[in-house]
Amino acid sequence: MRAIYLIPAAVVVLVLILSSVFIVDERKKALILQFGQVMQVKETPGLGFKVPLLQDVVLYEDRILGLQTQPIEVTLLSDRRLVVDAFARWRIVNLVEFRQSVGTAGEERAQQLLGNILSQAIPEVLGNSTQEQVLSQDRAGLMNQILAIAKREGQALGVDVIDVRLTRTDLPEQNLEATFARMRAERDREAADEKARGGEAAQRVRAAADRTVVELTSDARRQAEVIRGEADAERNRILAEAFARDPEFFSFIRSLTAYEVSLKGANSSIVMQPDSEFFNYLRSERGAAADAAAGAAAPSP
User: Which end of the chain is more exposed for a tag (fewer CB within 10 A), N or C?
Assistant: First the structure.
């Protein structure tokens, strides 16, 4: 009979012992709660103990968590509007304050609260900045200001905001088309200016080429005239020397050249006196002697 009662008692004791033991993973932290009140904090991994049936164990992340904010529309100092979002990394550092701040919702509620903090910090910092500062690659100063605000506000939640990075800085959708149209108009104007400058440069090149052609042609003509004049002078010199050596032969050659030029046509007709000196070298010796005798026999008037 006694063994019958000992077995259930042993089972109950074993269950109570097992329910009083819990394991904390190295990636977690634990709170031991009794009727909603924090009784113990366990931040080191390993075995832990609690009062069975009276105490509960709630586990929280000990790793660094990430938070991606929703797009936020901010107005800069220059009244330009930008759509900005950010990425933050945070970690739970005080379990008691974290439990009091987020209640039973845990990390999900903390994400919402941190998102609200960043949604207020980003416009506060960027609202006092210029577009050049926000859009430049060296904007670490702005992110450090946002991080400082997030750290200060996150301490009340029992978390530490480790880093904040701006991931998107774009124009609002309603302004994109107008911006693109303005950019296209600016590029069209630059293209028209480039074309105008190119046309002006081409006109200068063509004018310089035309001037060079005129100058080269004029110089070539001048040189041709000089060469032609020198050739004519040389020809005349040679003719003069030939005439001086044998005037009769020179006259004969000149007369043959004149005959060739004047009688070149198919129906050449020449009207002149019969005793013209033009045909002196075409007359026969007999005809020349008869002409001379007839001239001598003719009575003088």
Answer: C
pLDDT of residue 298: 46
Here the tokens at position 21 are 């033991």
Q: Is 164 exposed, middle or buried (0-12, 13-18, 19+ CB in 10 A)?
A: buried
Give the pair of three-digit tokens for residue 45.
């991994």
**Residue 40 phi, psi dihedral angles, 5° rounding:** -155, 145
User: Tell me: the pLDDT tens digits for 201-223?
Assistant: 999 999 999 999 999 999 999 99
Q: How far apart are CA 12 and CA 35, in angstroms?
A: 23
d(CA 254, CA 260): 10
Q: Are residues 91 and 163 in contact, defined by beta-carbon separation less than 8 angstroms?
A: no
Reported as a single tens digit per residue, the pLDDT across 121-161 is 999 998 888 878 887 777 888 899 999 999 999 999 999 99
Superfamily per CATH, domain 65-170: Band 7 domain (3.30.479.30)
